[in-house]
C-alpha cells in the first residue's frame, strides 16, 4: 500500500501527461458529477481534479470514479484526514496547493500519489530533496506566471510542473511551451453555469478544444 515519493511522482507525471489540460472542478451537486466527467473524458480530458471545497466533493469523486476512461483525483488536500477521505472515496491521486510533512507522510503511508504544490525555488528544492520530481506550480499567475516557471526550470531542469491558478485558453499555450511543463490545470473547461444548466455537449466542446492546446 505504501508509496515512495519517487513512485508517486512517476504516477502523477503519467496522469498529467494524459492530456495538456487537467480540469480543476468545484462540484456543488454530486448528481451532476458523473455526466460532467463523461463529457470531459469524451472531449479528451481524462485526468480530473475534484477540489475538496464543497460538501459534495467526496460524493462527486465516488460518482466520477465509475466513469470509464477517467482518472479522478482529489484536489485541495490540506490534512491527512483529507487524504484518507479522498482515497476512501475512490481518488486515484491527490493534489495540494502546497506541502506539509504531515500531508506527505499520510499520502505515502496510504499509497495515494500526490502532486504537491510549490511556488518558489526553495519549496521546489525541498520537495525534490524528499524525492518529488512532479509538482504543481501554484498559484501560477500570481507567482510570476510562465516567465517565473521558466526561470525556475533553468537551474532545476529535473523537476516537472503542472501550473495551476489563473490559467486560461489565452495563456495556457505559453505555459505548455515550456520544457518543464507536463500539463496545465484549468477550471474553464467545467464552468459553473454550464454545469448547472446540464449542457454537457458544450462542456465536451470546451474539453475537446483544450485537449488540442499545445499541439502544432
TrEMBL record:
It comes from Leisingera aquaemixtae. Pathway: Carbohydrate acid metabolism; 2-dehydro-3-deoxy-D-gluconate degradation; D-glyceraldehyde 3-phosphate and pyruvate from 2-dehydro-3-deoxy-D-gluconate: step 2/2. Its EC number is 4.1.2.14. The keyword Nucleotide-binding does not apply. One of its GO terms (molecular function) is (R,S)-4-hydroxy-2-oxoglutarate aldolase activity. It comes from the Bacteria. It catalyses: 2-dehydro-3-deoxy-6-phospho-D-gluconate = D-glyceraldehyde 3-phosphate + pyruvate. The gene is eda. Gene3D superfamilies: Aldolase class I. Keywords: Carbohydrate metabolism, Lyase, Schiff base. This is 2-dehydro-3-deoxy-phosphogluconate aldolase.
Amino acid at each position: 500500500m505504501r508509496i515512495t515519493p519517487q513512485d508517486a511522482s512517476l504516477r502523477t507525471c503519467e496522469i498529467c501527461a494524459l492530456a495538456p489540460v487537467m480540469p480543476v472542478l468545484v462540484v456543488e451537486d454530486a448528481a451532476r458529477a458523473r455526466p460532467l466527467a463523461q463529457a470531459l473524458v469524451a472531449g479528451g480530458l481524462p485526468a480530473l481534479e475534484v477540489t475538496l471545497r464543497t460538501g459534495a466533493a467526496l460524493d462527486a469523486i465516488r460518482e466520477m470514479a465509475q466513469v470509464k476512461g477517467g482518472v479522478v483525483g482529489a484536489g485541495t488536500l490540506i490534512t491527512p484526514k483529507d487524504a484518507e477521505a479522498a482515497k476512501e472515496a475512490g481518488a486515484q491521486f491527490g493534489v495540494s496547493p502546497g506541502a506539509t510533512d504531515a500531508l506527505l507522510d499520510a499520502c505515502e503511508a496510504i499509497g495515494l500519489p500526490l502532486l504537491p504544490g510549490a511556488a518558489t525555488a526553495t519549496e521546489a528544492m525541498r520537495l525534490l530533496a524528499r524525492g518529488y520530481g512532479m509538482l504543481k506550480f501554484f498559484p501560477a499567475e500570481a507567482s510570476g506566471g510562465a516567465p517565473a516557471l521558466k526561470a525556475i526550470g533553468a537551474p532545476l531542469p529535473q523537476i516537472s510542473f503542472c501550473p495551476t491558478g489563473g490559467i486560461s485558453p489565452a495563456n495556457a499555450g505559453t505555459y505548455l511551451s515550456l520544457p518543464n511543463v507536463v500539463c496545465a490545470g484549468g477550471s474553464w473547461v467545467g464552468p459553473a453555469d454550464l454545469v448547472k444548466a446540464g449542457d454537457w455537449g458544450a462542456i465536451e466542446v470546451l474539453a475537446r478544444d483544450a485537449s488540442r492546446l499545445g499541439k502544432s
